[in-house]
Design goal:
Layout lengths: L8 H32 L9 H24 L5 H22 L6 H21 L6
Helix pairs in contact: 1-2, 1-4, 2-3, 3-4
Length: about 130
Amino acid sequence: MNTSPTVFPRERSKGLNIALWIVQSLLAALFLMSGGMKLANPGMAKDLPIWLVYFIGLSEVSGALGLLLPSILRIKPLLTPLAALGLAIILVLAMLFHISRGEISHVLPVAIFLAMAVFVAWGRYKKAPIQSK
């Protein structure tokens, strides 16, 4: 006799939706801070061209806004998983950058953020997409 509680798909997707909102919010906060610092003080990365630091900062801030605004406003919510994919690309490039400089201690945190971004992209595209207005 099966005594385990039955989990209905709606309950599972509700839990997944909550988890996705939490991860989206954390990633958005991370990239708003990181990108904002690059835009406010591009000279902090002394060995990179200033235009590249501005580009990365603008990309991070745009990605952070893309993680939240389309889903919150329910206007073109397909942009949310695309923003997550864009941030995942930035994170892969960041991992390669840190590896090339021998900064191996920086790779694990970036890999964790990469997994979070891929989770949001997958979840918002396949499992718990936000419906448009």
